[in-house]
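Appendix B. Extra example for self-study. Work through it before the problem class; the solution is given directly after the inputs so you can check yourself.
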Amino acid sequence: NAGVTQTPKFQVLKTGQSMTLQCAQDMNHEYMSWYRQDPGMGLRLIHYSVGAGITDQGEVPNGYNVSRSTTEDFPLRLLSAAPSQTSVYFCASSYNFWLRDNTEAFFGQGTRLTVV
Amino acid sequence: AQKVTQAQTEISVVEKEDVTLDCVYETRDTTYYLFWYKQPPSGELVFLIRRNSFDEQNEISGRYSWNFQKSTSSFNFTITASQVVDSAVYFCALSEATNAGKSTFGDGTTLTVKP
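Solution. Structure tokens for the complete assembly:
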């Protein structure tokens, strides 16, 4: 049971490049999310998914795409990187709390992305 | 829209002091969940507690305790007899009832515990 695995841990991109941040969980969680954390701020929701094939936008979705073809994986795509996307990205997963009590949201270790 | 306010940006205490971190939230939902997370200098997010809106009982876990007051929309976190290892950024978060992954976070409180 590895929990939530994010890759890569560090990445430097040039403006205009594209890339995919990977997120995988092995806990059979229904819900998965992507957040970004900027200095001195909390986490802001980018996109989330309530199950395979279902995704929706969060607070700051512009410039990012997601898909959820399997329960386990929830990749985040940066279409054309911009310096404003320099941030630390966290993936999270959880069960549906309404159906299962005493559960929590599990977070990956984070991906530190720098766009130059 | 949901909102979480952590008015204390930074707190500094001396080891063994008690410290309370404040969290005030706004939501129109009648059912919701509140969380506290710890982010140590290493950067990972560590889950501390989850509380649902139906349960206003205070909770104690070792040196940690949480006071949830629905009447004032607050969910405060107290560390008793603080230790240097408690130094971290602490986040309060609010989520919809069915999806902890769709959470609204406060900006965090940086706690520094000096020896």
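Self-check: DSSP finds no helices and twelve strands in chain B. If your reasoning did not lead you there, revisit section 3.
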